[in-house]
């Protein structure tokens, strides 16, 4: 009985640690977008010249500390972690039927996404043009389009060609597409194990590269190529999920080694493949037993992990609104810092009102459909 309780405790701690990783990655995205408001990081706006980067700041930007605001690395962690979490039931004994799997993903991802985009469009229509001067090239590229039937339809279908209202949702377009095909991505892994995962990832990565080589980096073909390329991140996460029980038996000290190598890959990675490997190593580090897992399961980080998706969805709405309303009335660093603090309680409210009920709706609908399917047919 004690052994069973120990196994349950380790399993709970492991997944709490991954929630914390997701929360920390969301904070990295918030920091990335906050810094992009400044011309030094987000590019000079029209008529502006970015200030010269001093030697100390130049060293900081090139140092491993830059991982604290490396949004690309954070998204890589999101993708690999999604593959890991989605694959776990398929390697256990309780995989959902495909239609219930899609229903759960729709409620979990799409419904909060739709509400966040609707709020972003409303705020854009209200505040667009309220600041008298440009801020940074990155900032000025947001909220530049009117709300039209075309932009609404684009977001409803998650086409990804008009992401100027809440541009953080670009990754969710890929996440939903990959979710629809996820059981197919698992086939080579379930059939051939890690060798099947490697073969599938290499093949898909090559296909994506061929599409971008011949069709370029813009337009619908490029968007499809990006989805194919990011599907390799999900495959890598699935491969980690397949060997999670073996990972759990490794020596605790290896967590720090995996973390160090993973962060180096994310820091130096220029190719998406290197970032995917780095993200996988970070996730491995989080599920290995030891002090790192203890740190990641502290109550504060667990709370941050619970609201991480809401934070990802709404932080730009808070940031852009604050700058539009206060630019010229308060120092820009104060506005950005204040928005960064405010977005946390806003995300908590969004989680409570929108995200958690949407997720629970998916669970309830899936349970009812399963129960209905289990009932004997009536003549």
Features:
mainly alpha
Helix content: over 70%
The class by helix and strand makeup works out as mainly alpha
Number of E strands: 0
Number of helices: 16
Major sheet attributes: none
> What sort of overall outline do the alpha carbons produce when their principal axes are compared?
globular
Give the percentage of residues in beta strands.
under 5%
Spans where pLDDT lies below 50 across 5 or more residues = 1-13
* H-E string: HHHHHHHHHHHHHHHH
Task: Work out the radius of gyration.
Answer: 22 Å
Oligomer: single chain
| N-to-C CA distance | 46 Å
Average residue pLDDT:
86
Describe this structure in words.
The chain is an all-alpha fold and 379 residues long. The chain is 76% helix and 0% strand. It is built from 16 helices and no strands. It has helices at residues 2-36, 39-42, 55-62, 71-87, 98-127, 137-140, 149-156, 170-215, 220-242, 244-248, 254-268, 272-287, 291-296, 299-306, 308-326, 332-374. Helix 1 packs antiparallel against helix 4, helix 5 (98-127) packs antiparallel against helix 16 and helix 15 runs antiparallel to helix 16 (332-374).
Layout: helices, strands, pairs:
Elements: H1 2-36, H2 39-42, H3 55-62, H4 71-87, H5 98-127, H6 137-140, H7 149-156, H8 170-215, H9 220-242, H10 244-248, H11 254-268, H12 272-287, H13 291-296, H14 299-306, H15 308-326, H16 332-374
